[in-house]
Amino acid sequence: MRGAGRRPGWWSVLLVLGMLLTGCASRDAGTAAETGSGLPRYYDIKQLIAAVTDRVRSDRTAGLSVRGEVAGQSAGTQISGDGVIRLAEEGVSAQFTQSMSRPGAAPAKTEFLVVAGQVYLRHAGSDPPWVRV
After folding, report:
1. How many beta carbons lie within 10 A of that of residue 96, not counting itself?
2. What DSSP line would sit under 42-102, residue for residue?
3. Average pLDDT of span 99-110
4. Number of folded domains in the chain?
5. How does pLDDT run across 20-57, given as a tens digit for each residue?
6. How far apart are CA 132 and CA 2, in angstroms?
7. Nearest CA to 56 among 78, 88, 34?
8. Which end of the chain has fewer CB atoms at under 10 Å, N or C?
9. Measured distance CA(82)–CA(130) in Å, rounded
10. pLDDT of 89 over the 60 cut
11. How much is the pLDDT for 18?
C-alpha cells in the first residue's frame, strides 16, 4: 500500500490539534453547528476528525481555525489559532499558529510547523527561534 508508512505522521498532527481542541472547547459535545458564515463548528472531536479526514482525502489540504476559552483554574484564558494541513506524495506538512491570552497578561503566540516528518515549535521571543520537538 503506497504511502501507508506516512500515516502515523498525519494522525500525530490530528492528535495534537485534537488535544488543543478538546482542551479548549467550552461547550459540551454535540453536533456540528452552522455559523453565520455557513461554515460548520464542531464541538465533538470525532466529528471534527471525520470532517477533516474526508476533506483532506478530496482536497489534500485542510484549513483549521480554533477559538475557545479555558475552564477551571485557568478560567478567562482565551485561545485562538489558525493553520493549514497538506497531504502530499512526499508526506504531511502542517502549519499552525496559536495565541493564548490570560487575564492581565500579554497574549503568548506559539507556532507549530511539520515538514518532512519533523515537528518544529516556536514561542514568540524565544531563542533559538525554532526548536525541533
Report:
1. 20
2. -SSHHHHHHHHHHHHHHHSEEEEEEEEE--GGGTT-EEEEEEEEEEETTEEEEEEEEEEE-
3. 91
4. 1
5. 444 444 444 444 555 566 778 888 889 988 887 887 78
6. 27
7. 88
8. N
9. 18
10. yes
11. 53
Burial class (CB in 10 A: 0-12, 13-18, 19+), 106: exposed
CA 109 to chain CA mean position, Å: 14
Task: List, in sequence order, every residue forming a beta bridge with 100; answer none if it has no partner.
Answer: 79, 108
Q: How far apart are CA 98 and CA 110, in angstroms?
A: 5
Hey, what amino acid is at 128?
A: P
Q: Which domain holds residue 79?
A: 4-132
CB atoms within 10 A of CB 55: 14
pLDDT value of position 94: 93
Cβ burial 13-45 (10 Å sphere, 16+ → b, else e): bbeebbebbeebbeeeeeeeeeeeeeeeebbbb
Is this prediction's pTM over 0.70? no
Q: Quote the cell numbers at residue 72.
A: 477551571
